[in-house]
Structure formats: C-alpha cells, structure tokens
Amino acid sequence: MHTAGLFTRSDLTIISRAAALAERLTTGYFCLPQDEWRRNPYGVFTRKEVDVSLYEKDAFANVVRYRKPISRRPATCEEKYGIVLQDPNILLALLRSSKHDLWSMGLFILTHELAHIVRFRKFGVDFFAAPEEAGTEERIVHDITREILAGVTNTDYIINLYQHQLDGMTVKKPS
Ligand SMILES: [Zn+2]
Fold it and tell me: In terms of pTM, does the model score above 0.90?
C-alpha cells in the first residue's frame, strides 16, 4: 500500500523498468536509432532531488532543460533534458484508484515525457513556447502517447483519465 509520500527504492526500480520500455517504444515510434537514448541520455529526478521551484501541484511530471559542463578548457556545455517526476502527485493518484499501478502509470508518464523530449530535440518544438502553443503541443504529445501505448496492457484507463484532465486544462507549460 502506498502512502502519498516520496518514491521508495522499490518504486524507483519499477520506474527504471518502465523507463527502459518507454525508451524502446519511443525509439520505435519515431524511427530513431536504437542507441538514441544512450547517445542522448536524459536525467530522471524526483522531488527530493530538485529545487522547490520545480514542484508542480497538478502535474505527474515535467520536462526540464539544463546545461551540463562537459569540458573546462575550452568551457563547453552540453544541453540536456531531464524528467522531474512529481512523486507525491503520482502516489496520490495511485491511492485514489485501484485500477492502475505504478508500473503502468510510470510507463504512461515516461512515454509522454520522452515524446516531449524527442519533439523538443528533433522537431524544433519550442521549449519556451507561449502558453497557447504549449497547450497545443500538450495535446499532440498526448495523442502520440495514446498511439504508442495502444494495446499495451492496462494503460488505456490512465490515458483516458489524463484525457479528462487535459480537456479541463488551463494552459500551462509542457508537463
Ligand atoms: Zn506533457
């Protein structure tokens, strides 16, 4: 039984397995090289690893972009993307429903966020888009996620749940 706190170590194991599958699914969907995510690794963070400014009240996760130094001389930075999992929100949603579990929820969230990252990196989608544009992008990514996960066990319920949220959404940053 989960309490709506932070992910435990075993939760994180489930999340990393879900991430591995989400990586394979997005690679296939976007026809990317098989080693795409090895060549372009992304960070996965939970609440306790990020600043309070990255806490989101209503989202399950959000994408962040940051610069990581790769050499000192000459000073070179690499632009990287990361996924901040809002673990208390995810665990609370799990508590409220017996119909889904962390595995399918994690798979849904990570597939969605990886689709965002692919579109930012390869499709010229603006990370800092105005709210209206970001809202449109959110719907596109949701549709892509639905397509990617079509037929994947137990994710339909979550996709529909999120669809309701999206329908009532006031525009906000990609989440
Ligand atoms: Zn999103």
Answer: no
